[in-house]
């Protein structure tokens, strides 16, 4: 997130005297400010995302920020997509492909909707179409509670299913509109929606999970792919601010 803050700082043409610095008074996550952009790390998985997002939403409220737009960006596993494709999420879904985030609050099961702002989806697709060498698609993003079994991986410490079982499950997700898998979008979408904040999820795929679990792409290529969501969002932010 520090790297993105420095990148967007340069893209927005901000003063060198305003070089982004880590403003977070915690070791749980980093927070960098570049002009009107806050760049915050969220850790791994939904618990870390939930902690950060609760604290960030309170900060934005007390700072009296308005017209806020939030994005989760990063990497993911794809479903039936060429690695390097950027997925712009229409909705986050759980491991049963349902668009809802379920929590236990005071012993009661609470479910919250996880659809994302469709206007942002269309706007991001429009920006992506103007970027040479960038392939972007819209689709649902499956958010799992773990990296291995919940995503149907065969390479974890435990695996009580076959490769055929895995492929049947992932194909079922593909048929339900899922285009990528990660571990944070469900919580992010639900809490932003509850707070009334427009939100989007933009993740690049590093592997097609219908073909395998291991990422075998050369390191330099992966680094270029990982920049694609950053470049797309930088163009979106510049456009929103009227900076060409």
From TrEMBL:
Q: What EC number(s) has UniProt assigned to this enzyme?
A: 2.4.2.3
Which Gene Ontology cellular component annotation is one that this UniProt entry carries? Answer: cytosol
Q: Where does substrate bind?
A: 151, 153
Any GO MF annotation of the entry: uridine phosphorylase activity
Matches recorded under Pfam families = PNP_UDP_1 (PF01048)
Per UniProt, phosphate binds at 28, 72-75
Tell me the route in metabolism or biology where this protein functions. Answer: Pyrimidine metabolism; UMP biosynthesis via salvage pathway; uracil from uridine (phosphorylase route): step 1/1
Key words of the record:
Glycosyltransferase, Transferase
Q: Which reaction does it catalyse?
A: uridine + phosphate = alpha-D-ribose 1-phosphate + uracil
Give the top-rank taxon of the lineage listed in the UniProt record for this protein. Answer: Eukaryota
Family to which the UniProt record says this protein belongs: Belongs to the PNP/UDP phosphorylase family.
NCBIfam families in the record, alphabetically? euk_UDPppase
Physiological role: Catalyzes the reversible phosphorylytic cleavage of uridine to uracil and ribose-1-phosphate which can then be utilized as carbon and energy sources or in the rescue of pyrimidine bases for nucleotide synthesis. Shows broad substrate specificity and can also accept deoxyuridine and other analogous compounds.
Q: What is the protein name given in its UniProt record?
A: Uridine phosphorylase
What are the top taxonomic ranks of the organism? Answer: Eukaryota, Metazoa, Chordata, Cephalochordata, Leptocardii
């Amino acid at each position: 997130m520090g790297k993105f803050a420095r990148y967007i700082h340069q893209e927005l043409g901000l003063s060198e005297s305003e070089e982004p610095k880590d403003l977070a008074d915690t070791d749980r996550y980093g927070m960098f400010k570049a002009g009107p952009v806050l760049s915050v790390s969220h850790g791994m998985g939904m618990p870390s995302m939930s902690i950060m997002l609760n604290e960030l939403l309170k900060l934005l409220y007390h700072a009296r920020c308005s017209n806020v737009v939030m994005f989760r960006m990063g990497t993911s596993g794809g479903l039936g997509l060429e690695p390097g494709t950027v997925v712009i999420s229409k909705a986050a879904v759980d491991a049963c492909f349902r668009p809802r985030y379920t929590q236990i609050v005071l012993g009661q099961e609470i479910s919250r909707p996880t659809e994302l702002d469709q206007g942002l989806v269309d706007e991001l697709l429009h920006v992506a179409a103007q970027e040479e060498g960038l392939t972007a698609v819209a689709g649902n993003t499956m958010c799992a509670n773990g990296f291995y079994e919940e995503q149907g991986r065969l390479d974890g410490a435990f695996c009580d299913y076959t490769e055929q079982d895995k492929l049947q499950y992932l194909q079922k997700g593909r048929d339900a509109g899922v285009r990528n898998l990660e571990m944070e979008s469900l919580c992010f979408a639900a809490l932003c929606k509850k707070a009334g904040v427009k939100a989007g999820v933009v993740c690049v795929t590093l592997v097609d999970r219908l073909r395998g679990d291991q990422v075998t792409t050369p390191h330099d290529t992966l680094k270029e792919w990982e920049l694609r969501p950053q470049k797309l969002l930088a163009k979106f932010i510049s456009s929103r601010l009227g900076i060409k």
